[in-house]
C-alpha cells in the first residue's frame, strides 16, 4: 500500500473548519481518503462489507465503558427509557463477529465496550471515530461511563471529570509515535460537564460532583495499591502520594480518561467522563463491597446519562 | 487498612532463595502476608471464598492470550491433545462471575485471556501471580500465545520472542509508581525459548523463528500505521521507522510483551512469548486476510505449545 501525504497542512485546516460548521466527526488523517476500503478490524466492520451511513448515520450519542456486560445492560436500559418497541433482550451485538469489543444501537444511542486501559480504549476509539466519519454522523456527543477508585469521597459517588490528568497530575496524554514522544491536551468539554452536573441535581439518590480524574497505566503499583503481586512502597508513602493527588484536585482514579479526552478533542467530538467510585482509596485498596452493591453503583452513571439523553431529545 | 513494610530487604532475599529452590511462585510484596483475605477482583476469585490450592495447586503450564474465544478454543484443543475424559464443549469458565477475563483449566494447563494492551494484561498478571502463590503452585511455565504484526517476514510466521523491546527498541518496561518512573528488564527465559524452537523443528506446516518483539501502547499511530483516525506522518517516515526496527532485530509488533516479561521475571516464572504474524507491516497496515486464513494462523502458536506441553509431560 502506498499513500501520499499532502505536504501542506492548509487543506486540512480548511476541511476541519467545514467539519466543525457541519458538526461532522473530524478524522485527522489525509491517508484515509486515498483508501479504497477501510476494514475496522477490531469491530468486524468495513466500508465495503457494511453500509455504514445506513447503519449508523442517525447516531447522536455514543456511550462507552470497560465491561461488555455493563454496556449491554446500558443498551437494554436505554431501550426501556426511550420507550422503544420490541424486546430489549433480543438486542443484537453489532460486533458479534469479534470478541474484542461489543456494540449495541438503541435509536440514536450507540453503546460500546472498550476493555481496560489506555491501549484497549484507543484501538476502539480509532475505529469508532472512523466509523462515525464514514457514516457521516453529525453533532455526536460521546460519554465514557465507567468505574473508578475514589479519593476522599464516599463509595458510590459519581464523578463528572472536568480535566483528565496523568500520574503526575498533569492534563496531558503522552504517546510515542515513530519514536517521538507526542504530548496531547486532555481537556474535556466544559459546557457538557456543566450540563451533566445540572442533570445530576435532579437525582437525589446518590451524590454527584465535578473533579479531576487521574488516569494510570496500572491498577496495582501504578495506583499506589499495597495488594498487588508486586509492591515496594510503604502504606505511608502510598497515602502521601494519594493525598498529594487529592490536593491537586483529583477525586477519582481510572485507566482510560486521558487518551479518551485527547482523541475526542482532536476529532471534534464533545466528550465527557462520568465514573462511579467503588471504594475510597484513602481507606483501602481491595474492592470489598458485595456484588449487589457494586451492581447498583454501576447503574448510577447510566441513570444520569439516561436523564441527560432524554432531556436532549426533548422527552 | 494498615500494613507494615519490613524496613530491611534481607528477609525478602532469603525468602526469594527459598522460593527459587522450591520452585514456588514468588510474590514480591510483604504486605500480602498481613492480609486476612485477598480478593482477586477482576478474576472473581478470593482466598476466603475459594479453596485455591485445591482448585489450582497442580497447575504447571499457564497460557495467556488476548481474545477470550481464542483462549477457550485453546483449552478445548488441549483437552483433546491431552486425551482427557469428558466433553470439552461443557468446559466451564472459572471466571464466569466477571466479564473482564475468562479462564479454563485442563489438567495441569490453565488458559486465560488478558484483553488488549499493557494495562489490561498487567491487571490479570497481578491477580494470576497471586493466585499461583496462594495455590502454592510449583515449577510453573507461562507462555503468551498471541497475534502480532510481522516485520519483513511472511504472514502466518510464528515468532518466539528472545527479547521484548519498547518503541525505542530497548529491552525495558517503564512504569510510574507513586510518581517515580521505574524501569524493569524485559528479558525472557532463553532456555525456554530454545526448547520451543526445538519443538518447532518438528512442525513442517509453518515457519517459526526467533526474534525481538516490539511492544507498543497504541495499535495505530504507535505502530506507525497510516490508517487510524489520526495520522500525522508520511508513508516514507513510517517505512523508515519500521526498517530501523527491523535492523534492530525486531521481527514482530504487539502490545503486551514488555510488561509480561518484566512481571514474570520478577516473580520467578519462566516465561515465553509466541505470536503468529497476521500481516507484514512493511507491505501494509490493514489486516485483509479472510476469516478462515486468520483462524488457521491463530491455531499455529497453539499447535507449537501443545507439542511442547506434551513433550514436557512425557506424552
UniProtKB/TrEMBL annotation, chains A, B:
Q: Which GO terms describe its molecular function?
A: uridine phosphorylase activity
Q: What is this protein called?
A: Uridine phosphorylase
Per its database record, what is this protein's job? Catalyzes the reversible phosphorylytic cleavage of uridine to uracil and ribose-1-phosphate which can then be utilized as carbon and energy sources or in the rescue of pyrimidine bases for nucleotide synthesis. Shows broad substrate specificity and can also accept deoxyuridine and other analogous compounds.
A Pfam family annotated for this UniProt entry: PNP_UDP_1
Identify the Gene3D superfamilies for this entry: Nucleoside phosphorylase domain
Pinpoint the Nucleoside phosphorylase domain residues. Answer: 60-309
Q: In which pathway does it act?
A: Pyrimidine metabolism; UMP biosynthesis via salvage pathway; uracil from uridine (phosphorylase route): step 1/1
- Annotated residues that bind substrate are located at 223, 225
Stored InterPro entries = Nucleoside_phosphorylase_CS (IPR018016), Nucleoside_phosphorylase_d (IPR000845), Nucleoside_phosphorylase_sf (IPR035994), Uridine_phosphorylase_euk (IPR010059)
Quick one: a GO biological-process term for this protein?
nucleotide catabolic process
Top-level taxon: Eukaryota
Q: Which cysteines are joined by disulfide bonds?
A: 95-102
Keywords of this entry: Disulfide bond, Glycosyltransferase, Transferase
- Identify the EC number(s): 2.4.2.3
User: Which segments cross the bilayer?
Assistant: none
